[in-house]
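From the thread on structure requests for the teaching lab: each student submitted one protein with a one-line request. Submission from student K.M.:

"Model GH18 domain-containing protein from Zingiber officinale, C-alpha cells only."
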Amino acid sequence: MASSSCLLVIALLSALATLSNAGGIAVYWGQNGNEGSLAGTCDSGLYSYVILSFLTTFGNGQTPVLNLAGHCDPSSGACAALSPQIYLCQSQGIKVFLSLGGAVGSYGLSSSDDAASVA
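Reply posted by the TA:
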C-alpha cells in the first residue's frame, strides 16, 4: 500500500512540474568572452531563460552603461548586432532578460520618473 501511495505522489509531482513549466534552466550570458555568441547559447536548446549581464551604470541622471565583457563595445554601437540574436532567442520561446546592477557599478533609482527614464 505504501509503495502505491509513493507512486501516486511521484506521478502527481511530475504532473505538477510539467504543468507549471518547472525545470526551465536560466543562464547569465555576457560576462565570459569564451562563452560563445548569444545565438549559439539559445541554439543549444539548454536554456529557457537567458539573462544578459549586466547593465552596470544607470539611474540618477547617469548615462546607462552595458558591460558585456568584450562581446561588444556599447560606446561604438557594436551591441546593436545583438538585436537579431535576441529576436532569434525569443522566436525559440526563450525569455531574454537584462540584469540590472551586478557586483560592481554605479546604479540606483531615485524615483519612478528616474526608473521610466532608464527604461
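TA comment: The two ends are 57 Å apart (CA to CA). The chain is about 35% helix and 20% strand.
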